[in-house]
Amino acid sequence: MRLTLVLGAGLTAAFLGAALLSFLWTPEPVSGVNIAARLHPPDSVNLLGTDHFGRDILSMIMVGARTSLGVAVVAVAVGMGFGVPLGLWAAARAGGWLDEIIMRGNDLIFAFPSLVIAILITAVFGPGAVNAIIAIGIFNIPVFARLTRSGALSLWQRDFILAARVSGKSAPRISIEHILPNLTNLLIVQGTIQFSLGILAEAGLSYVGLGAQPPVPSWGRMLAEAQTMVAIAPHVAIVPGMAIVLMVLGLNLLGDGLRDALDPRLKDRVP
């Protein structure tokens, strides 16, 4: 098993485990304010120290992982749920007006980064985790649509697809029964990459106040609140920053490892 896959899976599993554990237990209540213990450095009581309200940072990181992972998972699911069918549909009608409409619609969405989309959404509906999911999910749709269309177009030229067409199968049935299964590995790898980008996007939206709202902990908002205290309590900014870095690193390594493991052209390559 490749080292990148093992490291990526290990880091991802650690944060996923912390997120799941936070549903049952955290070292301290995340809403517990203790002004007397504010900005304490890491010690035996608070392993990662406390923030400017005296809250346990380890507990905040655990619940923040739940928030970030939840937003990223749902946003990627939204992107795949809409993008993959659109990509299959466009590939089945390649060169036609429907294909052109879908692709130009994707180009239009790509013209607006997720942060801009989030600002537009929150201007109408207000900030929150749900609106962050919608913004990131919308941005993921053209990513999966383009990837699916590109992969499907190459498959439509294969002999086994020609045999399916000769047997009388319709284009939608061929897309579901033959095209989609052969794109699964590609979509899994891209999903892990978009997952890591979703973590970054959620942190960025929370940093500017458009993501999860208080009292729900968020890594991005923890960074925003800590930026004026770096000189006196650097751990308040370092800990959530490192959490974001390690989570994204783990997902990227996992994506690279899955790509190497699932791509038959890379299986014989020396690790």
General description of the model:
- The chain has 9 helices and no strands.
- The protein has helices spanning 3-21, 57-92, 97-110, 114-125, 129-155, 159-166, 171-207, 219-226, 235-262.
Give the topology.
Elements: H1 3-21, H2 57-92, H3 97-110, H4 114-125, H5 129-155, H6 159-166, H7 171-207, H8 219-226, H9 235-262
The main sheet comes to: none
CATH domain class: Mainly Alpha
Q: Percent of residues in beta strands?
A: under 5%
Question: Structural class per helix/strand content?
Answer: mainly alpha
Amino- and carboxy-terminal Cα gap:
9 Å
Question: Summarize this, please?
Answer:
The chain has helices at 3-21, 57-92, 97-110, 114-125, 129-155, 159-166, 171-207, 219-226, 235-262. It has one domain (69-262): MetI-like fold (Orthogonal Bundle).
Q: Which key terms come to mind for this protein?
A:
single chain, elongated, 70% helix, MetI-like fold, 271 residues, 9 helices, mainly alpha
